[in-house]
């Protein structure tokens, strides 16, 4: 019997089969797919830094000096001066004592959660937290309790009922990756103080997007010094790859010693670290990037709403267009691609049944003309598919 084929047939029958798209260009505002130029509206390269000349040149210089692979895990032979420099600058950027780089944001969440809590503890998690948080919770062996998305009354209820645990850790995305809204962090911090819980914030989509210097959701809310564990990725606004944790010196020292996804994996290549470092420096010296990003976000949101699309109330560079039905969502995504816009259709199991959506992301490097063209295409395709009038 062919087990794999049976499972694949099931996925196809349920309309849940996924296929890869092949890009033949950089993550620019306009990309090439199947020999055709389309406007990219699905990249987390929020500040457009992955094609910035100054950053590319910094990476090339590092390759000339250090070569390609890192050759070992950080604790054996793969720890470069560049890793340490990046960690120092990330800690400064996030206003924490120290930071530690992991190979992906996913691995950062796994490594941190499996280290900081165990079977005597409880993790209290927002329902819409990212999959890597959920997997980290499973790996940690801690009790795992979920509160309804952003619902502070439910969170407090759990806090009231969970005093028997050794440690209580509230974990939340800063910006929710499929909804684009922000966690109510000031209120979460207040509850954590009241019930002596720890707080962990995964700011993968806030870093480089929110706050006046782009440090993220915590800067946006003025909560520096109040969050015990901050997670970030280097793969989105920082235009490279990797993840990181920022926090106290002791937290970072503990992770360096115990986080298995840090210890047992080859270090990120010097060129990758150089890309993050150059991006981090670039974004701090180019505040106009944030201005362009928010201009584009607002232009697109206003335009889509004027056309009659239903948007979820997001506060970030993620704009979810609610469709509901999964087939209609994928049909819209396909039709947009044919007309020249790459915008991802998101369906179960990534989001709940009946809430399938087009997840649009905007970049600082989109021009006003790009956004206007996108709106024309959304108008045409939406009318053809009878999604708008
Ligand atoms: C909230 C959140 N956390 C973590 C990750 C994982 O980060 P990475 O892609 O660097 O593994 C992502 C997205 O990929 C995310 O959206």
TrEMBL record:
Its EC number is 2.3.1.47. It comes from Orenia metallireducens. The modification N6-(pyridoxal phosphate)lysine is found at residue 236. This is 8-amino-7-ketopelargonate synthase. Its cofactor is pyridoxal 5'-phosphate. Pfam families: Aminotran_1_2. GO terms for biological process: biotin biosynthetic process. Catalyzes the decarboxylative condensation of pimeloyl-[acyl-carrier protein] and L-alanine to produce 8-amino-7-oxononanoate (AON), [acyl-carrier protein], and carbon dioxide. It catalyses: 6-carboxyhexanoyl-[ACP] + L-alanine + H(+) = (8S)-8-amino-7-oxononanoate + holo-[ACP] + CO2. CDD domains: KBL_like. The keyword Transferase applies. Keywords: Biotin biosynthesis, Pyridoxal phosphate, Transferase. The lineage of its organism: Bacteria, Bacillati, Bacillota, Clostridia, Halanaerobiales. GO terms for molecular function: 8-amino-7-oxononanoate synthase activity; pyridoxal phosphate binding. Belongs to the class-II pyridoxal-phosphate-dependent aminotransferase family. BioF subfamily. It is an enzyme of class 2 (transferase). The keyword Transferase applies. Pathway: Cofactor biosynthesis; biotin biosynthesis. Residues 37-376 form the Aminotransferase class I/classII large domain. Homodimer.
């Amino acid at each position: 019997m062919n087990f794999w084929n049976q499972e694949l047939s099931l996925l196809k029958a349920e309309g849940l089969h996924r296929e890869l798209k092949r890009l033949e260009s950089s993550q620019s505002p306009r990309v090439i797919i199947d020999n055709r130029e389309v406007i990219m509206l699905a990249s987390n390269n929020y500040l457009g830094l992955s094609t910035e000349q100054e950053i590319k040149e910094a990476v090339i210089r590092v390759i000339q000096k250090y070569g390609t692979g890192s050759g070992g895990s950080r604790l054996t032979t793969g720890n470069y001066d560049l890793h340490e420099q990046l960690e120092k600058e990330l800690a400064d950027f996030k206003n924490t004592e120290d930071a530690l780089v992991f190979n992906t944001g996913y691995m950062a969440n796994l490594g941190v959660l499996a280290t900081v809590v165990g079977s005597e503890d409880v993790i209290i998690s927002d329902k819409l937290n990212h999959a890597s948080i959920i997997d980290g919770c499973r790996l940690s062996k801690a009790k795992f309790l979920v509160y309804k998305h952003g619902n502070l009354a439910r969170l407090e209820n759990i806090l009231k009922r969970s005093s028997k645990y050794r440690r209580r850790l509230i974990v939340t995305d800063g910006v929710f990756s499929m909804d684009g809204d922000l966690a109510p962090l000031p209120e979460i911090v207040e509850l954590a103080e009241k019930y002596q819980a720890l707080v962990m914030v995964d700011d993968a989509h806030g870093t480089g997007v929110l706050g006046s210097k782009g440090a993220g959701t915590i800067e946006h809310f003025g909560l520096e010094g109040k969050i015990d564990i901050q997670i970030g990725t280097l793969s989105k606004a920082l235009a490279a790859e990797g993840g990181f944790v920022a926090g106290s010196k002791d937290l970072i020292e503990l992770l360096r010693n115990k986080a298995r996804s840090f210890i047992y994996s080859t270090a990120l290549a010097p060129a990758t670290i150089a890309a993050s470092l150059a991006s981090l420096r670039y974004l701090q010296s180019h505040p106009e990037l944030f201005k362009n990003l928010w201009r584009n976000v607002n232009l697109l949101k206003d335009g889509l709403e004027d056309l009659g699309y239903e948007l979820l109330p997001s506060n970030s560079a993620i704009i979810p267009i609610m469709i509901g039905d999964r087939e209609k969502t994928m049909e819209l995504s396909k039709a947009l691609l044919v007309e020249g816009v790459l915008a991802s259709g998101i369906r179960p199991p990534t989001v709940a049944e009946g809430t399938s959506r087009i997840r649009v992301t905007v970049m600082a490097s989109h021009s006003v003309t790009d956004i206007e063209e996108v709106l024309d295409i959304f108008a045409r395709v939406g009318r053809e598919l009878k999604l708008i009038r």
